Amino acid sequence: MDKTAVTDYPVSELIAKRWSARAFSERPVENEKIMSLFEAARWAASSYNEQPWRFILFTAEDKGRLEDARSILSEGNSYARKAPVLMCVVAKKTLTHNGADNGKYLHDAGAATAYMFLEAYNQGLAMHVMGGFDGQKARQLFEIPEGFDPVTMVAVGYYGDPEQLAEPAKEKEMAARTRRPVSETVFAGMWGKNI
């Protein structure tokens, strides 16, 4: 399905064509492609080059762990239980060089995940990031240590048939992509002053 963004200004094809799919095929994802996603994340910018992101990977190679990952998803993200690959994005809350709080750890984990999104599209894969999951259960099941936060869950796979989705996921999958215009997002020199 083509959901190319209608942009007001030119952007890279990777950005214009990337979207958060909900329909996943059960086709397994090749390990090399999964590792390319992690390599893309590796090169994201981060404050102090801290690279606070960590990823816990779940595939059919360990069906029990994959089922554990599926079990923590909220009902609203049940479509992602069909994805052959799930990941838990985890971020370190402190700076390594001095132990101080890293106020940018969530931003940096988001940047790494965004790089993964672009590489997923480049590899012909669908990807969807989800905030709807049980973080406490993730911490327990996946043995996430103190000082690290489970931030999001990510579903990855090949694009599937949107007709097989239940509502409201099907409606969201078929809808056109929309965004607020740049003029409502960017201000000139002070809050609220139009560019």
How would you describe what is shown here?
- The chain is an alpha+beta fold and 195 residues long.
- It has a four-stranded antiparallel β-sheet, with helices on both faces.
- The chain is 29% helix and 15% strand.
Q: Cα-atom Rg, whole angstroms? A: 18 Å
Strand proportion: 5-15%
Q: What would you call the shape?
A: globular
Query: What is the N-to-C order of secondary-structure elements (H for helix, E for strand)?
Result: HHEHEHEHEH
Uncertain runs are none
Given the structure, what is the number of helices? 6
Q: What is the helical fraction, as a range of percent?
A: 25-40%
Structural class: alpha+beta
Largest sheet: 4 strands, antiparallel
Question: Which strands sit side by side, in order, in the main sheet?
Answer: 1-2-4-3
Distance between the termini: 34 Å
Number of strands: 4
In short:
The chain is α+β, with helices and mostly antiparallel strands.
Brief descriptors of the model:
single chain, 195 residues, alpha+beta, four-stranded antiparallel sheet, 4 strands
List the helices and strands and how they pair.
Elements: H1 13-17, H2 31-42, E1 53-58, H3 63-71, E2 85-92, H4 105-122, E3 126-130, H5 135-141, E4 148-157, H6 169-174
Antiparallel strand pairs: 1-2, 2-4, 3-4
Helix pairs in contact: 2-4
